[in-house]
Amino acid sequence: EPEVTQTPSHQVTQMGQEVILRCVPISNHLYFYWYRQILGQKVEFLVSFYNNEISEKSEIFDDQFSVERPDGSNFTLKIRSTKLEDSAMYFCASRGDREPEAFFGQGTRLTVV
Amino acid sequence: GEDVEQSLFLSVREGDSSVINCTYTDSSSTYLYWYKQEPGAGLQLLTYIFSNMDMKQDQRLTVLLNKKDKHLSLRIADTQTGDSAIYFCAESIRGGYQKVTFGTGTKLQVIP
């Protein structure tokens, strides 16, 4: 069964460093998303991406964040200068055209020290 | 805007039925989902229902929707220890880019 894959599963980084979280969505899916879940809290929407551009973003997704689909298969989330409060589990998701199901990856746990 | 509320915790005995409840606020054409998250794992889509339906059954899972009260429930029949997890209710508005809005999650503990 097709699945969304994310790498790495766990990333530790120093405050102020840049990180790139990677995702391979399900092939032939058209809509891509990033969410985050701070430990013990609810899953929060960050950004949606369609047709090679951001379609919607939340207040959390400020200038420190960016997304890219560099090669037609990978979908990346970059945090330019990490802060302690960026520590969270980051989930990538994808969805096919006219399909209600959004499929999530296993997540990347980001720890900022 | 969308807002989804759930109770935080539910404990049941193995073999009993579990009922996890959720309320949502958006009145647009909406998909309503149940996701399962096991400890340290990702979000597994269990089932979903469209807001014009009343009920959906899938093996041990039954989803009931009360549109008037905007109340959604997930019933797990014959609950097993492997069902212990956090269950998230979620919604998305049909059409557009369909971001998913999650509830706070209900932690289900199954006692052997």
Task: Please give the structural blueprint.
The complex is a heterodimer of chains A (113) and B (112).
Chain A: E1 5-7, E2 10-13, E3 19-24, E4 31-37, E5 43-50, E6 53-57, E7 65-68, E8 75-79, E9 88-95, E10 103-104, E11 108-112
Parallel strand pairs in A: 2-11
Antiparallel strand pairs in A: 1-3, 3-8, 4-5, 4-9, 5-6, 7-8, 9-10, 9-11
Chain B: E1 4-6, E2 9-13, E3 18-24, E4 30-37, E5 44-50, E6 55-58, E7 61-66, E8 71-76, E9 85-93, E10 101-102, E11 106-111
Parallel strand pairs in B: 2-11
Antiparallel strand pairs in B: 1-3, 3-8, 4-5, 4-9, 6-7, 7-8, 9-10, 9-11
How many DSSP H or I helices of chain B?
0
Taken in chain order, the helices and strands of chain A follow as: EEEEEEEEEEE
Mean pLDDT of chain B: 91
Beta-strand content bin of chain A: over 45%
Task: Please indicate the percent range of residues of chain B in DSSP E strands (runs of 2 or more).
Answer: over 45%
Order of helices and strands of chain B: EEEEEEEEEEE
The computed structural class of chain A is mainly beta
Explain what you see.
The complex is a heterodimer of chains A (113) and B (112). Chain A is mainly beta. Chain A has strands at residues 5-7, 10-13, 19-24, 31-37, 43-50, 53-57, 65-68, 75-79, 88-95, 103-104, 108-112. In chain A, strands 2, 4, 5, 6, 9, 10 and 11 form a 7-stranded mixed sheet that branches. A 4-stranded antiparallel sheet of chain A has the order 1-3-8-7, with no helix packed on it. In chain A, a hairpin with a 6-residue loop joins strand 7 and strand 8. Chain A starts with a strand and ends with a strand. The model of chain A has no long low-confidence stretch (mean pLDDT 94). Chain B is mainly β. In chain B, 0% of the residues lie in helices and 56% in strands. Chain B contains no helices and 11 strands. Chains A and B meet through strand 4, strand 5, strand 9 and strand 10 of A and strand 4, strand 5, strand 9 and strand 10 of B.
